[in-house]
Structures are given as C-alpha cells and as structure tokens.
Amino acid sequence: MIRLKDTQYPNTASFLGNAIRIAEYYGFSPLDTMPRSAAALRRPLMPLSKVESEISFARRDERSLLSSARKCLHCLQAVAHSAPAAAGIPLVVPHSGTLLAWRILPSQSGIPSMSLELHIVGTGSAIAEALLIVVANAIAEEAGLSRRSLAINNIGSPDSSNRFVRDIGLYLRKHIESISPTLRPRAAQDPLGTLVQLIERGHPATPRAPQAMEYLTEDERRKFWELLEYLEMLGVPYELNAHILGSRDCWSHSLFEIATTDSETGTRIPFAFGGRYDPLVSRFARTPAFATMVSITCEVRGKTRIKREARTPQGEAQPAIYFAHLGNEARRRVLNVLENLRHAAIPVHQGLWYDRIGEQMAAARHLAVPYIIIMGHKEAMEGTILVREVATNSQDAIPLPELPNYLKRRRIGGRAEAHAP
C-alpha cells in the first residue's frame, strides 16, 4: 500500500487524480461510465454468485476482481461496437475487440485504503502486462516513490498449474506438523491458498516448496520470455520471485508485484499487484477469453473524492496522432517512445494489441487523425520514426530523441494544436 507520507501528495484524492490522468493518457477509460450491453454478448454471462461459489480464493483481494471482470465483459462488446460517444468516453474503434478500463474500489486489505484497478480485456499478447507495468511504474514515479522493485512469477496454463498444485499438496503433507492447526484442513482442500498463507506468515518451509516456473512448458517459457523482453527493453529492473502467487481459478501465466522500500527500515512495502486473469474471465464468458489487470493501493488520508474536470468533445484536445508499429522489434520499442511523448505532454492514439499494420491504419482512418507516426523494423533498428501527414501523404524520418521537439515545432499535438495557424 502506498503511504502518502512517502509521496508528494497531500491526500488520497490528489494521488488518485494524477494516477488516473496517467492511465487515461495510455487510453484507459472509466469502467463505471462505459455503456454496457448484455445483448451484444454471444451468450449470457455466468452469474457472479455461481462463479464465486466455484472459486477457491488464495488471496484476500481476489474477491473484488469478480465484479470488475464481469463488468468488463459486459462493456467490451458494447463499447467496441459503439460510435464515438458521449462526453467523457474516448473514441473507440469499432470491432477493436480490446478494452482498456480503470476503476476505483475500496481495498479488501482490512486497512482504510482505496485501489485503482487498470484492466486490459480482449488480448492474449504479453504487451498487455507490459503496458500495465509501464503505467503502474509511471504512477509510482510521479508520486515520488524512487526506490521501487518489481517481482514477477509465472504459474503457466491451467495444465501446468495443476501439476504444480499437485506437488504443493504433497509437499505440505510432508510438513503438516509444522503448519498451524487452523490451516491444516485447508492444506488438503486448497494447497495453493495454504502456501500463500504460509508465505505471508513467513513459514520456514516455504523457501523449499515447489516453484511454479519449474512446471512451464517450452511454449509457456517462450511466452513468458516475451514479457521479460519488454521489461529489458524498457530498462525496468525485475526479479523472478516464486512467492508471487494467486488462485489458479483466477490467474494464469504471469503474476507481478511492485513494491517500494522504506528508507528507514529497509522493509519492502508492496503497493501494486497484477497479472493475467484469463481463467476467471473465461468462466464468466463461458468461452476462452483474455484479460489482465493491475491494482494499485493507496492509504486513505484526507480528501478521497476526485474532482474531475468536465470533458467535452469541444473543450478537450483530442490526440492528432496515431502511433502505428510494424513487426515485433518495433512493438518492443513502442512503450519507451510513448513514455517520452507522455513526458512531453503530446497525446497520441495507439493500438499496441494489433499485430497487423492494416488494422492500425484502419483504426487511424476511423479516428480521422491528421498525422500518423510509424515505426517499422528498419526504423526500430536505426532509432528513427516516420511522421506522416495524412492529407498529403508526405512523411519525414525523425531520430527518436528529436521526435518530441519536432512535433512541438510543427504544432502536432492535440487536435486544437494541430489546426492552429
């Protein structure tokens, strides 16, 4: 949990307000104001009460994920099929099939706190986890939390985690006498949840317990390495930590935790937890589905009501730029470029989840942006980027370090600036 005394913010509202501003730069929208449509879904969603009754929760904060997951599915089809809509709802490309949403909820930690949830629903690409880590890292950096650490684990697919949980059960059986009598009944029914409890209590047997990454298949290792490559490219330090775990009924593949370090005691203080919750969203959808999230928790102090400025199509400068990428090498470098543009206060649209350039160009046409910046494999290797004016189809190749200044000199930013004389 983020302690406000460690940040530059006087109260909870100011922290959350700035965190939301950063999230919305990357395209996240308020989940609670999105249009919802059950009719747009191919089949009815599983009732929340039924899903809840089927899950063995390993972590206290997993229960709050249920309502968000179900609401995201309701909104996904409705938003993706809607036209550019009301004030406060950003432009959405029809049939994009991917939803980026934020939501604020009271924390389930038992301590007065609030959590900002960020969700990406509809893509199985590792770019989703990478983007969530980038946004959470940017929020922490702007809060003044300079001493941060990222711990990451991978529990694989349900098949891999089944083998892992089976061996956890055998391991706990061997150490049952050292386990608290109140936890022993759970050890037989929910070995993974028991292990999470023992880790939280600092039980001496946990360091020698089986580790989930040892059970990954080659395909799962390659998928995990893709995420680690994004982190390497971003220059985000990380450590592999087998103790970052959650219920296999909720999570699959990557799980991560971001923490700060107390300057006086050196204690590690986690403030963000996230990962891929495909199994949970698939239960609700009754069909395979993809979803990732991160939850950033802050203590409650002072004001908590966020003052949001009215957003209207006339009063808000919409991005005049669409950022398109071509190829894996370019996609790996996009997040660094986006962070530099955010620091320069230059808004952009992007579709990191698209694999093909044609899909991105269709999105740019739908958004009617006057400029497109394009990074292909050649540009990624040379450290340049193409800036194309849609009206004339003319383009310039710009070195990446010069891109923000180039766009500012040409008054290429928000829609208002783009048409300035």
State the strand order across the main sheet: 1-2-3-8-7-6-4-5
Low-confidence segments: 83-95, 310-316, 416-421
Strand fraction band?
15-25%
> By CATH's scheme, which homologous superfamily of the largest domain applies?
Bira Bifunctional Protein, Domain 2
Helix content: 25-40%
Can you give the mean pLDDT? 89
User: How many beta-strand segments?
Assistant: 13
Order of helices and strands: HEHHEEHEHHHHEEEHEEHEHEHEEHH
Structural class: alpha/beta
Terminal CA distance: 47 Å
Provide a count of the helices: 14
Describe the sheet with the most strands: 8 strands, mixed
State Rg. Answer: 22 Å
Total domains: 3
List keywords for this structure.
421 residues; alpha/beta; BirA Bifunctional Protein, domain 2; Rossmann fold; 8-stranded mixed beta sheet; 14 helices; 38% helix; ligase; Anticodon-bd_dom_sf
Can you describe what's shown?
The structure is a single chain. This protein has 421 residues and is of the alpha/beta class. It has 3 domains: 4-156 and 216-299, BirA Bifunctional Protein, domain 2; 158-208, no CATH class; 321-418, Anticodon-binding domain (Rossmann fold, 3-Layer(aba) Sandwich), CATH 3.40.50.800. The protein has 14 helices and 13 strands. It has helices at residues 12-25, 48-54, 63-80, 127-143, 158-174, 184-189, 191-201, 218-234, 278-285, 328-343, 357-367, 377-382, 403-409, 415-418; strands spanning 29-30, 99-106, 113-121, 148-154, 239-240, 252-261, 268-276, 291-299, 321-325, 349-350, 371-375, 384-389, 395-399. Helix 4 (127-143) runs parallel beside helix 8 and helix 4 packs parallel to helix 10. The model is unreliable at 83-95, 310-316 and 416-421 (pLDDT under 50). It comes from Candidatus Kaiserbacteria bacterium RIFCSPHIGHO2_01_FULL_54_36. One of its GO terms (cellular component) is cytoplasm.
